[in-house]
C-alpha cells in the first residue's frame, strides 16, 4: 500500500470492549451509540457497561477496503471509485455508505436472532466533522437502531484529538484498528469543527433524530481517562446513572 501512514483518513482511538458487537466508522467528534441488553431495563439503561458473552466486531475495514479497492482498480488501469491517488474522498456520500452498511449488518443480526438483545450489546462508533456532520450522520441510522439507542459523546478538544492521532501512529500497522492515523492536514480538513455543541444546546437530555428522542450523555475525556481502567469505570458509572435516571 506504499506509505499509507501519510494518507489514511480515519484514526479512531479504541477503548477495549470485550463483550459487545462493535461497529466502527470514522473521527472527531466521536459518538458512541449503544443498544444494550434488555436485562438492563427499558431500552437498555446501563449503556456504559457492555455484557459478557457477546462477541466484538469492527468496521474500520470498510474504510480500509475502500482504499484497497481503489488501488486494485488503479493497478488494472480502471478509474478509482471513491478516492484520488492521495486517498482524499471524491464524494461525501461515502460517509453515509459506511453507515448504511452498519444498518444492514445490524438488521441482519436482528433477523437471524429475534432475541438478539437479550444477550448482546451493540456498540456503534463514528465521528463526523463539519457544521452539520453529526446530526446528518445520526439521521442515516435506521429506526431499528435509533429506537433502541443511547448516545455517548466522547468530548476532547481538537488539539487533544490531534495529539492522540499522532501518538497512535505505528509504522507498518496502518491498517490496524489500534494504530491507524492520518496527517495533520486531513485532521484539519475533516475534523477541525463539529456540531455537537449545537445539538446538545437544544435539549439537556435527548437528541431528536427523525422523530425519535434519543437519550445522550457526554464522556469527558480531558484530562484523559481512557488510559486508566479505574478512571474509565468511574466516568462510565456516571453516564450509566444518568441514563437510569432518564429511563
Explain the layout of strands and helices.
Elements: E1 21-24, E2 30-35, H1 60-75, H2 93-112, H3 116-119, E3 122-127, H4 133-140, H5 143-146, E4 150-155, H6 158-168, H7 184-191, H8 196-200, E5 206-209, E6 212-220, H9 229-246
Parallel strand pairs: 1-3, 4-6
Antiparallel strand pairs: 2-3, 2-4, 5-6
Describe this entry's structure for a reader:
The chain has 247 residues and is α/β, with parallel strands linked by helices. The protein has helices spanning 60-75, 93-112, 116-119, 133-140, 143-146, 158-168, 184-191, 196-200, 229-246, and strands spanning 21-24, 30-35, 122-127, 150-155, 206-209, 212-220. The protein has a 6-stranded mixed beta sheet with strand order 1-3-2-4-6-5, with helices on both faces. A hairpin with a 2-residue loop joins strand 5 and strand 6 (212-220). Mean pLDDT is 80; it is low at 1-20, 24-29 and 36-57.
Name some characteristics of this structure.
single chain, 247 residues, alpha/beta, 6-stranded mixed β-sheet, 9 helices, 6 strands
- List the uncertain runs: 1-20, 24-29, 36-57
Helix content: 25-40%
- Please outline the major beta sheet: 6 strands, mixed
Mean pLDDT: 80
Which strand order does the major sheet show? 1-3-2-4-6-5
Terminal CA distance reads 48 Å
Total DSSP helices: 9
Outline: globular
Secondary-structure element series: EEHHHEHHEHHHEEH
Q: How large a portion of the residues is in β-strands, by DSSP E?
A: 5-15%
Number of strands: 6
Q: Rg to the nearest angstrom?
A: 18 Å
Structural class, from helix and strand content? Answer: alpha/beta
Amino acid at each position: 500500500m506504499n506509505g499509507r501512514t501519510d494518507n489514511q483518513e480515519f484514526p479512531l482511538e479504541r477503548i477495549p470492549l470485550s463483550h459487545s458487537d462493535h461497529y466502527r466508522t470514522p473521527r472527531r467528534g466521536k459518538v458512541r451509540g449503544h443498544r444494550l441488553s434488555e436485562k438492563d431495563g427499558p431500552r437498555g439503561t446501563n449503556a456504559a457497561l457492555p455484557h459478557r458473552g457477546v462477541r466484538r466486531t469492527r468496521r474500520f475495514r470498510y474504510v480500509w477496503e475502500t482504499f484497497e479497492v481503489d488501488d486494485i482498480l488503479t493497478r488494472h488501469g480502471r478509474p478509482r471509485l471513491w478516492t484520488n491517488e492521495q486517498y482524499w474522498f471524491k464524494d461525501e456520500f461515502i460517509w453515509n455508505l459506511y453507515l448504511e452498511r452498519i444498518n444492514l449488518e445490524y438488521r441482519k443480526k436482528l433477523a437471524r436472532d429475534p432475541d438478539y438483545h437479550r444477550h448482546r450489546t451493540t456498540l456503534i462508533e463514528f465521528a463526523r466533522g463539519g457544521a452539520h456532520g453529526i446530526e446528518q450522520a445520526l439521521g442515516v441510522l435506521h429506526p431499528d437502531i435509533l429506537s433502541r439507542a443511547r448516545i455517548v459523546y466522547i468530548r476532547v478538544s481538537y488539539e487533544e484529538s490531534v495529539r492522540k492521532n499522532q501518538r497512535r501512529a505505528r509504522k507498518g500497522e496502518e491498517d490496524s484498528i489500534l494504530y491507524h492515523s492520518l496527517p495533520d492536514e486531513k485532521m484539519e480538513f475533516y475534523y477541525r469543527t463539529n456540531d455537537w455543541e449545537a445539538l446538545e444546546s437544544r435539549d439537556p437530555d435527548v437528541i431528536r433524530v427523525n422523530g425519535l428522542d434519543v437519550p445522550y450523555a457526554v464522556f469527558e475525556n480531558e484530562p484523559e481517562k481512557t488510559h486508566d481502567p479505574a478512571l474509565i469505570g468511574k466516568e462510565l458509572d456516571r453516564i450509566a446513572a444518568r441514563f437510569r435516571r432518564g429511563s
